[in-house]
Specification:
Layout (H helix, E strand, L loop, with lengths): L2 H4 L2 H17 L7 H15 L10 H24 L12 H17 L2 H9 L5 H8 L3 H17 L15
Helix pairs in contact: 2-3, 2-4, 3-4, 6-8, 7-8
Length: 169
């Protein structure tokens, strides 16, 4: 029996949902969808032997593994857009990404120090983690995120697919 046949259909469904979310919100293309789905499933299968039934439920473990891998992929994509080297393959529209990276880098460089720090921390941390790291409340971090977004909008940097009120980042 193949490994794919042994995977709970619910896990496959969750990987498909997360892959779709990454395409919709994290800058991946539709062509990336199947690779993302497979990456999420592979990560789950690799971590499955680490599951301890005394520490939690199987679905909770699955949700955590798939969610965390999706978050790491989204963070890698954000770092790629911001010009930080990652292990992601080049995208077909590299010239557009290059221009966007330059615009993002210039906009981030013009931010005040406290906002630049928050922007850099948000590349791989949640707003809650950023709040802990800088010793501010989450509501203050969200205010700063609003200020960062405003700076990007003022600079005319607004990538396609970015939702105005969507997501914390």
């Amino acid at each position: 029996m193949s490994a794919a046949a042994a995977v709970d259909p619910f896990v496959i469904q969750q990987a498909e949902i997360r892959a779709s979310q990454l395409v919709a919100c994290a800058g991946f293309t539709r062509d990336d969808w199947e690779d993302l789905r497979q990456d999420l499933l592979l990560d789950y299968l690799e971590r499955l032997p680490l599951f301890d039934s005394e520490r939690g439920e199987p679905r909770g473990f699955m949700f955590g593994v798939v969610r965390n891998r999706a978050a790491r992929l989204a963070a890698q994509r954000r770092r790629a857009v911001c010009g930080v080297v990652t292990d992601l393959p080049p995208r077909p529209h590299a010239d557009v990404d290059h221009d966007l990276r330059l615009d993002v880098a210039a906009t981030v460089a013009r931010l005040p120090d406290h906002l630049r720090l928050v922007a850099e921390l948000l590349l791989d941390r949640t707003p809650r983690e950023v709040a802990r790291a800088i010793g501010k409340s989450r509501s203050r971090v969200y205010q700063m995120i609003g200020e960062i977004r405003a700076a990007f909008e003022q600079a005319g940097v607004r990538p396609e697919g970015l939702r105005r009120n969507g997501g914390a980042r």
